[in-house]
């Protein structure tokens, strides 16, 4: 039987960071990864101290090597279900029929980005259609930038994007802006394009611009699009973790969910977490998990001592 102190579902920055801390704490750890990281389309990641500009897959490769170097196990596979096993912990069920026993769980399954349904937009995702100016703004600085608006936060988002270029245009539905928002945008020379978008235009495998529903074309080199973040929380919901009205699992300051013994970290817990943030959350969750295991180890030792074992 496969038995572990901690099984980590998800082998991204959060999961591997947690695994590194736990293996160094001499815990028996298994990381199960489905092999579909959110940032796979990106050529480079940024803002990670000492690893700025590193390809995401290289970071994960280095992380896996470090975890395995301390005795951790990495398993490629798809987890289909998480099941409580009474006081003994949890069962982790895989699509290939494997069943793994663990005392504690860390779920770091991330999220998925739902983009506006505009023809051509998804094809350019993580190339010249971007979502995070802090991740990619410097690389597209001083180009012709566009921001697709339509939700309350996009006006401020456009103001942030303006930090990286003087030529910024905000695309919004007609009548969307308040007078104050309009004046603030104009004050910083952010262009305002009102109306519907028909499609994204490309040329020679590069974004060329945006076609509007009135037939006009607005030339842009890059578009910033705030997607809808949807957590990959089916496993958490199936386990009985409390989910709020927006779809995010409830957690305490350490990342522990409403189900004792189950923690979350990274984008499944925090939609705004960048790679470095997710790694930090994984590390913090790992220390909380180890402390929780130590508490149980003490109880088990006292019980065995009193029974004369």
UniProtKB/TrEMBL annotation:
It catalyses: [thioredoxin]-dithiol + NADP(+) = [thioredoxin]-disulfide + NADPH + H(+). Keywords: Flavoprotein, Oxidoreductase. Pfam families: Pyr_redox_2 (PF07992). Residues 4-281 form the FAD/NAD(P)-binding domain. It comes from the Bacteria. The keyword Flavoprotein applies. InterPro entries: FAD/NAD-bd_sf, FAD/NAD-binding_dom, Ferredoxin-NADP_redctase_2. The keyword Glycosyltransferase does not apply. This is Thioredoxin reductase. It comes from Pseudarthrobacter defluvii.
């Amino acid at each position: 039987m496969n038995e572990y102190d901690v099984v980590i579902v998800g082998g991204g920055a959060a999961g591997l960071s947690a695994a590194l801390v736990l293996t160094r704490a001499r815990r028996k750890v298994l990381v199960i990864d489905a092999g579909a990281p959110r940032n796979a389309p990106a050529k480079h990641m940024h803002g990670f101290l000492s690893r700025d500009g590193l390809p995401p897959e290289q970071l994960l490769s280095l992380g896996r090597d470090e975890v395995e170097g301390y005795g951790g196990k990495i398993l490629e596979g798809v987890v289909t279900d998480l099941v409580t096993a009474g006081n003994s912990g949890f069962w982790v069920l895989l699509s290939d029929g494997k069943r793994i026993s663990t005392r504690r769980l860390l779920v770091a399954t991330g999220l998925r980005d739902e983009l506006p349904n505009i023809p051509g937009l998804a094809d350019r995702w993580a190339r010249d259609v971007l979502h995070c100016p802090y991740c990619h703004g410097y690389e597209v600085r001083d180009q012709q930038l566009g921001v697709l608006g339509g939700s309350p936060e996009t006006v401020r988002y456009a103001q942030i994007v303006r930090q990286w270029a003087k030529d910024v245009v905000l695309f919004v539905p007609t009548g969307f802006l308040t007078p104050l928002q309009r004046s603030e945008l104009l004050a910083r020379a952010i262009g305002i394009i009102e109306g519907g978008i028909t499609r994204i235009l490309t040329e020679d495998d590069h974004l060329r611009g945006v076609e509007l529903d009135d037939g006009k074309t607005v030339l842009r080199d890059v578009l910033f699009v705030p997607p809808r973040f949807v957590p990959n929380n089916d496993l958490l919901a199936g386990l009985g973790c409390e989910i709020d009205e927006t779809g995010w699992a409830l957690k305490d300051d350490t990342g522990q969910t409403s189900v004792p013994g189950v923690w979350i970290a990274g984008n499944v817990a925090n939609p705004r977490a960048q790679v470095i943030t997710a790694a930090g959350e994984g590390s913090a969750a790992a220390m909380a998990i180890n402390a929780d295991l130590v508490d149980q180890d003490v109880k088990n030792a006292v019980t065995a001592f009193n029974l004369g074992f």
